[in-house]
Amino acid sequence: MQDITTNKDLITKSSTKELKIFVSALEPSSNLHLRNLAKVLPESCTLIGVCESEIGRQVLSPSEFAIMGFSDVAKKILFFKEAMQILSEAALTCDKILLMDSSSFHLRLAKKIREKNPNIPIMYYILPQVWAWKEWRAKEIERLFDKLACIWPFELHYYEKKARYVGHPLLDIYTESKQLYSKDSNIFVFMPGSRKSEIKKLMNDYRILAKKLLEKHENAILRLIIPEKFRDTKMMEIYGDIEMFHIVYNTQEGLSNASFAFVCAGTATLEASLMQIPFVLVYRAKWIDYFIARMFVKLNFVGLANIIYQAMLKENGKDIKKAGLGDDYLHEELLQNDCNAKNMLKAYENFNYQKYFEGTSTLRKYLKHGSKDNVAKWLLEP
User: Fold this and answer.
1) Regions in the chain scoring below 70 on pLDDT
2) Which pLDDT score is estimated for 178?
3) Are 62 and 26 in contact (CB under 8 A)?
4) Rg (CA), the chain
5) d(CA 165, CA 150)
6) Are 257 and 278 contacting, i.e. CB atoms less than 8 angstroms apart?
7) What is the tens place of the pLDDT at every residue in 83-138?
């Protein structure tokens, strides 16, 4: 852990004209969106808290919150307890508070801050997915926060007040509405995810699929997208033999001009949709994890793009059927036993491009615009 005393000294030695905003962004994606937000805030604003060092003054580093599975959580229980105390005290030295994503930690942090100062303004940006499970949390969230910055239009239905649709942060990045897909590029993109378990379960089938694609397209270019955080680390060893792939460490760069992609479940499915890159979702989890998720998560699909697309259709009055029926989804999902090289190749060969492009265009219109400008304006309001 860092020398918190030194960092606290930095916090208190601030100009009287300075507007101090406490921020907590634990995830790489949160820091990406926070970086975009910081660009449109006035120079008089100073960000303090958990963020990357180039964004603001660190009280703690986001890297200290990185965990890989339940065993890591157990090892870090003492750290999380200490961090909660440190951050709640640091937050009280600031004028405003902005918490981003990471609900398991931030709901507890907001509660601790409220106990110490019921009146300090707290905004929540990138809210918990109460629409997937635990709807009852919406009331608790409204009780703890003053401003709820929703990134999905349909989220507003779950809150009685305090919520506002601000736009989606990915549209601050993928600002162009034109297709970035290239029909004749023969560039095939493979995204095995960012967790060790995901990567290990997909890479063997990806290698088999890659060889089949090279047989069909002699000039095929095979791109493997690896998270930047894994560059030059031992994590690279879990990928196995990747000599046939061109390695890319940036999602936008890796997907650009692709003719097709095979994407592990997650935010990447929405990124591919906004870039209008045709893809199939592939995902294989531990059976016990998959079974529990199916029991508690009340959604027809796994992919974020499909989930949001269905929510959009439902808002427009369409009767949503069960998964796999009708035209209620953007792309195919290959899960568990269905997730294999043979089915991936078949999904590519049978892909409905017209339906996909029409659907992704509609999805972009539904999300409307980016969020950074609206969040900045609302955050600074009394």
Assistant:
1) 1-16, 67-74, 132, 178-179, 286-299, 317-327
2) 65
3) yes
4) 22
5) 5
6) no
7) 999 999 999 999 999 999 999 999 999 999 999 999 999 999 999 988 767 788 89
Residue 320 Cα distances to 47, 299, 364, 365, angstroms: 43, 11, 20, 20
The candidate with the shortest Cα–Cα distance to 264, out of 200, 359, 183, is 200
What is the model's pLDDT at position 19? 96
Contacts of 44 (CB under 8 A, 6+ apart): 17, 18, 19
| DSSP tag of 325 | S
Tokens of 109: 């942090």
- Cα 328 from chain centroid? 23
Q: Residue 49 half-sphere exposure, CB side, CA atoms within 13 Å?
A: 29
pLDDT in the model for residue 290: 53
Rounded CA-CA distance 179/258 in Å is 10
286's tokens: 């531990």
CA 115 to chain centre: 30
CB crowding 202-231: b at 16 or more within 10 Å, else e: bbebbbebbebbbeeeeebbbbbbbbeebe
Host H or E run for residue 25: strand 19-25
Q: What is the C-alpha separation between 207 and 187, in angstroms, rounded?
A: 15
Q: Say if CB 132 and CB 298 are below 8 A apart.
A: yes
Query: Are the beta carbons of 316 and 294 closer than 8 angstroms?
Result: no
Sheet with 333-335: strands ordered across: 246-248, 221-225, 187-191, 260-264, 279-283, 333-335
Structure tokens at 82: 């200490």
Give the pLDDT of residue 176.
Answer: 77
Asked whether 153 and 366 are in contact (CB, 8 A), the reply is yes
Q: Are 149 and 164 a contacting pair, CB within 8 Å?
A: yes
